[in-house]
Design brief:
Layout: H1 14-35, H2 40-67, H3 73-97, H4 101-121, H5 126-132
Helix pairs in contact: 1-2, 1-4, 2-3, 3-4
């Protein structure tokens, strides 16, 4: 099931909120492409874009958390590494086996659900650190 952006995901940092929206849209686009049985080339394009967006966003956010000495900076970095690992597993599964309900379920639970919880639980802690600086 797609993840819908709501105000509960707002961090109060416009650049990060925009990056989060882009990542959510890309993950939703991937689910849609799988449900439509789009070609492997289309799916690979979405996966590549999602990978680039995630790497850029995670790097930016980790730099901000370190700069503003956010107490969850290290946990955030570890959770990002977990996401990248899971995304890599899903990407390999798609390349080797193609689309399946199992892969779509993993994207829904292990990427979209994780991401929504991560934003609300970790990423929202950055703004108060910035405000103190």
């Amino acid at each position: 099931m797609p993840l819908t952006w709501t105000n509960t995901f707002k961090t109060g940092i416009p650049e990060i909120d925009e990056q989060h929206k882009e990542l959510i849209n890309s993950m939703n686009e991937l689910l849609d492409a799988l449900q439509r049985n789009d070609s492997p080339q289309v799916i690979q394009g979405i996966l590549s874009r999602l990978s680039s967006c995630a790497n850029l966003h995670f790097g930016y956010e980790e730099t901000c958390m370190n700069r503003y000495r956010c107490p969850v900076a290290e946990k955030n970095k570890l959770l990002h590494a977990q996401f990248i690992k899971t995304f890599g597993e899903i990407r390999r599964e798609l390349i080797m086996n193609g689309s399946s309900n199992t892969v779509a379920g993993r994207i829904d639970k292990e990427l979209l659900d994780w991401f929504g919880q991560h934003i609300k639980g970790i990423d929202t802690q950055l703004k108060p650190c910035m405000d103190k600086a």
